[in-house]
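Homework help board

Subject: predicted structure for assignment chain

Our instructor gave us this sequence and asked us to write out the predicted structure in token form, then describe one feature. I got the tokens but I'm not sure how to describe them. Can anyone check?
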Amino acid sequence: MAYAGTALTRLVPHVLLTPAARGGPAPTRRIRVTVLRIVLQVLLAITSLILTLLILLHKGKGGGLSDMFGGGVTTSLSGSSMAERNLNRFTVGVALVWTVAIVLLGLVERFTNEF
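My token output:
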């Protein structure tokens, strides 16, 4: 039942009308947006933790905080190993997922008409 534009909207205060009666999103759309928002927030939290751990796993290049925690120990192997390259790739992939989650969460917040 859509009451927008009828005499009922003039008689009943705007706050008491349902979102559908105010011309807002239908309840099923609101549920979908809420579920999407929760999924994006959980994804953001998980990727934030994983990204933090992956960054801490990287080998220090020297001169930074990694030297303070024992990262300044040099080895005779100079050059990037396969494990280091895979760690770099995985870190970049998680960072991209994190960035997409941030942008999508911002868009969902921007374009929802909830009060």
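Reply (TA_rk): Your tokens look well-formed. For the description, you could write something like this. The helical segments are 7-11, 27-57, 65-68, 82-111. That's the kind of observation they're looking for.
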